[in-house]
Amino acid sequence: MNTIKHVFFDLDNTLWDFRKNARFALKELYIKYDVENRYGFTFDEFHPFYHDSNEGLWALIRDKKITKEELRARRFKEAFDNLGINDDELAAIFEHEYMETITNYNEVVDGAMELLNYLKPNYKLHIITNGFIEVSKRKIETSDLNGYFDTVTYADEIKILKPDPRIYAFAMEKSGAKKEESIYIGDDWIADAVGAKAFGMSAIFFDRLDDNFKMDDVPTIVHLDEVRNYL
């Protein structure tokens, strides 16, 4: 991969630890609104229902089956309903405050800063994210990630999400990169690895959840420091 000049990253769960930060934010709201005392369910009982709802809805967005607005309307309502809490007002409050609260927490994925410091002197660094644009901007600007990236491409800019090849083409144009000189690193097999390869870029799959997906010419890593084996 000695022809690579540009390294593109996914944001959530590749660099910015969404799962960890989301858990912190949700626990803050759970305590703030006294959910356990009001309804008898602990936070640890609630969290898996939220996680499953959110992950499933984001997969539907990626597959163009629902919109982001539908996700925002459904994720907390579904989580509370499935737990046995029928309180639409509480679900709406959580959705409204969650988007602000989550950026109060800015843990990055283990090894992210070490990798960026290793890559920065020799490569142009970029991000392509499907996340909500205003929240994603705050995640970068208020975390240790700020200042490392030449460009950030937000799906909301063009209303096209990974793995659609058009978002990769837009990122190439925005960054001035050529796909044959670029590599993409991300933790979502379909949106990141499959999407980048379909566009014609090299890709590295960051298999944080031990999904064990495989594709020819797509290396799999389980820790970010393994990127050094390829770049």
Beta content: 5-15%
Instruction: Work out the radius of gyration.
Output: 18 Å
The strand line-up of the biggest sheet is 3-2-1-4-5-6
CATH topology of the largest domain: Rossmann fold
The structure class reads alpha/beta
Order of helices and strands: EHHHHHHEHEHHEHEE
CATH architecture title of the largest domain: 3-Layer(aba) Sandwich
The total strand number stands at 6
List the total number of helices: 10
Poorly predicted regions: none
The CATH class of the largest domain, by name, is: Alpha Beta
GO molecular function: 5'-nucleotidase activity
Organism: Faecalibacter macacae
Pfam family, one: Hydrolase
Protein name: Noncanonical pyrimidine nucleotidase, YjjG family
What does this structure look like?
With 231 residues, the chain is α/β, with parallel strands linked by helices. The protein is built from ten helices and six strands; from the N terminus they run E-H-H-H-H-H-H-E-H-E-H-H-E-H-E-E. It has a six-stranded parallel sheet with strand order 3-2-1-4-5-6. Helix 3 runs antiparallel to helix 4, helix 4 packs across helix 5 (88-101) and helix 9 (165-175) packs across helix 10 (189-199). The radius of gyration is 18 Å and the shape is elongated.
